[in-house]
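Moderator note: this is an archived Q&A kept for reference. The question asked for a predicted structure of one protein chain; the sequence and the answer are reproduced below.
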Amino acid sequence: MRTIGFVGLAVFALFAQTGGCVAQEASDPAGAGITAVEGLRLGHFTLQERPTGCTVVIAEDGAVAGVDVRGGAPGTREIALLDPVNQVQEVHAIVLSGGSAFGLDAASGVVRHLEERGIGYQAGDHVVPIVAAAILFDLGVGDGSVRPGPECGYEAARTASVAASAEGSVGAGAGATVGKLRGLERAMKGGIGTASITLDDGLTVAAIVAVNAIGDIIDPATGSIVAGVRTEDGTGFADARALLRAGEVPGNRGEVGGNTTIGVVATNATLTKAEITKVAQMAHDGVARTVYPAHTPRDGDTVFGLATGVHLDEGGLTRIGALAAQVMSEAILRAVRAATGLPGIPSVADLAGAGG
């Protein structure tokens, strides 16, 4: 293995104190994370009115795409198109958004931006951009009437680049929270994270993920809780595993849709739609290792897969899928570690600073 490239952290102001921020780039120009995959660009847009926003992964030349939905209450767009039996082979962008079902509107702005640039599927005299999307529920953080819309998607697409991405409380992760099993008052800040691995033979596998879990984020290397349900005094972890064994009922505190992890895994390998769909399926192993509980009846866990086809991999699909699970897990950990806390919703750094 030659490199393991992970994006540097970015620092963002508290939304409640500043009225929000629009932070699109980190200073690291190395292009780590999902933009380490040749042919992909990444953009975030964060609304100023409240913590919410959208994130877009753009493949201007198209990328073979698949998807695997494990949550029981997903909010998605163009999912049927990605079925390997269906005609269109490539997509031009994937959108991750806050705002629950309202946030799917962000994809329309991405479509408009790509059409203006002549990027899309040739349909007679028309160019039709193929843009799939998934959303998470963050309406309980701030004024829920403020949601990402077409302009959010347009700006995220317009500013997308190959530069290393901002992480944490930005884009689709701006309003994400974790540890809501006992209500938002015992929760912590979630966020968005990205990670990549490049091997000696040139194969690159990467992920970007927005983490909005009802339970805990667990480091699979140690089994320790990184972020999650806090104790009554707010300084430690209640442990969702113990709470569920003791009879805690997920969702009984009104956190409907609160356990959603949405993301994209990407590779530079040359794969078919069926093969990249299998990679997306295997990437869910990274979700299951790191998010507890995951894939519940009331969440929207969804992972998209993209293959840009610039590298002919001889290592096989098993290797790519295993690496996809690894980078997905790392991206989830990075999402919560990079997050910036909100009043009453501390971040990992806030809890550590308080001695938790």
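Archived answer notes: Residues 1-31 have pLDDT under 50 and may be disordered.
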